[in-house]
């Protein structure tokens, strides 16, 4: 994968992948169910790696990275099917967080008095 990937390029690549199948995009509700399933799988992996619940020897070894990748992929599928530009959404969210949470947390560059 190139370091030059953008959200726009990734959404386009996901769309090209989905368009090769007759079924195309699933309904928003089916996509939400899939996203929920993937988030649950991420929670399970986080619990295995950072929590108290150890993985069973019979369980398939997945990684947090793999599950985050699945969530990203399914998020892009859902965004594409709903005509959501994730770059635009990201820019709006960052503006919101930078404004709303500007003074919420102590910054590393602030001097302690």
TrEMBL record:
Tell me what this protein is called: NTP pyrophosphohydrolase MazG-like domain-containing protein
Fetch the CDD domains from UniProt.
NTP-PPase_BsYpjD
Q: Which Gene3D superfamilies match?
A: MazG-like (1.10.287.1080)
Q: Which domain of life is it from?
A: Bacteria
Domain (NTP pyrophosphohydrolase MazG-like) ranges = 26-105
InterPro entries from the UniProt entry: MazG-like_dom, MazG-related_YpjD, YpjD/YvdC
